[in-house]
Amino acid sequence: MPTQRSPALLAFALCLITFAVNLQAPLYTTYAELSGTGAAATAMAFSAYVVGVVPVLLLLGGLADRVGRRPLIIVALGLSMLATLLMLLAPTLETLGLARLLLGIGTALASATGTAYMSELMHNGDHQRAATWVTASTSLGFGLGAALTSLFLLRGPSLAPESFYLHLLLAGLALLAVWRLPDQRRDARGAWLRLPCYPAGSLPYGLAILLAWACVGLVIALLPSILKQHGLADWSGFSTFCVISCGLLFQPLARRMAPGKATLLGLMVLPCSYALLAWGADRGQLVAVLLGTLAASSACYGFVYLGGLSAVNMLAGAEKTRASAGFFLLAYLGFSLPVIFTGLLADRLGSRVALLVFGASLLIGCLVVAVRLFWHYPRLQSHPSAQ
To answer: From CA 98, how far away is CA 298, in angstroms rounded?
Structure first.
């Protein structure tokens, strides 16, 4: 039987799984220099994460119902520890690609079952409260790993900062905690294959999160090399923390807004915040970079994230699982493909041109999607689930 501590233990495990994902982010430039490569190769290694995420989201939506929730969390924790260990043993860009592939698989497994498992461990089965716990713990983990690595690197350069060992220790404790959590199989004969779907009217929300997470991917993968030009590379982890975890501050406000309005607000904030952080990165103004990433986080992990996901679930009817998978599929495509393209531009034309092209594309994309959402908004309001 679940105890009062069970939800907190699962939240701790989920935080440690995502903690590992951006743990190495402040060292991306160092790995690239050791491998003799540039921004494009770094973006490719960074995007290996999505190669791990997408197949699980596409093909294994029914896995948790067949084998149970707890085994997937245990495997995800094990993969996060293996990825960290690999980076300690062989700190190269090639190893980074392999590590991020493992991290992508682990994160997708945890995402596939985290909210459902949390709901089962809560005595009242409160789905909204479960989603809040999962969102908060994973968002904190995504940013905290990078921030702690940056903090330890301020003491001196290292390929094995103490944050790596801290993750191995805490993840080991989380593994023991999850091992003792109760579990139940939902449908041992259910289908493994559950393809994503896009209910009528949901595609603009998927495109909105694609644009938002493209901005996040650029900050994590490419901003460290740009900041290094101004002697600020050690602060890149804090920019990652700001662009991800600070979105928690805006989630309560996003929940009080209608999903369409929240998403539209996020699309208005996103290009403005990007302009500030890009200007700060180009000029070496750390305060502008941190303020820009904080503002971008309000959209990326606040208004667009929660507003878009809520709208998709509202429009999905009985297909919420498949519709959510479709939403996150577009999110992770945004997290990878635009970053690779921008990295190629940075290598060939310089970081300033790459930032300008990405910014212009982001602005155009936000305007097009916002117009589409504004046109669709009355239909969302009239949907039976919105009454």
So the answer is: 31
Name the DSSP letter for residue 192: S
Domain assignments of the chain as residue spans, ordered by start: 1-189, 195-387
Q: Which residues of the chain have pLDDT under 70?
A: 1-2, 60-62, 64-65, 125-128, 131, 184-194, 318, 320-321, 376-387
Q: Supply 280's token pair.
A: 């700060």
Q: Could you give the CA distance from residue 103 to residue 80 in angstroms, rounded to a whole number? A: 6
Instruction: Find the radius of gyration of the CA atoms of the chain.
Output: 20
For residue 1, the model assigns a pLDDT of 55
The tokens describing 69, both together, are 């929730």
CB proximity list for 212: less than 8 A, separation 6 or greater: 266, 270, 299, 300, 304, 305, 331, 334
Residue range 1-189, CATH number: 1.20.1250.20
pLDDT confidence of residue 385? 47
| Cα 123-80-297 angle, rounded to 5 deg | 75
The per-residue b/e assignment along 8-41, b for 16 or more CB within 10 angstroms, e otherwise, is: ebbbbbbbbbbbbbbbbbbbbbbbbeebebbbbb
CA–CA dist 305, 253 (Å, integer): 12
Q: Count Cα neighbours of 25 within 13 Å in the Cβ-side half-sphere.
A: 36
Rounded distance, CA 383 to CA 25, Å?
42
CATH of domain 195-387: 1.20.1250.20
Residue 127 confidence (pLDDT): 60
Residue-level pLDDT at 186: 59
Q: Quick one: which of 128, 91, 137 has its CA closest to 110?
A: 137
The residue count for the chain: 387
Neighbours of 252 (CB within 10 A): 11
Query: For residue 255, what pLDDT is reported?
Result: 83
Q: Which residues contact 180 (CB under 8 A, 6 or more apart)?
A: none
CA distance readout (Å), 69 to 24, 44, 98, 110:
28, 31, 25, 9
Confidence (pTM)? 0.82
Distance CA 90, CA 159 (A): 9
CB 196 within 8 A of CB 59: no
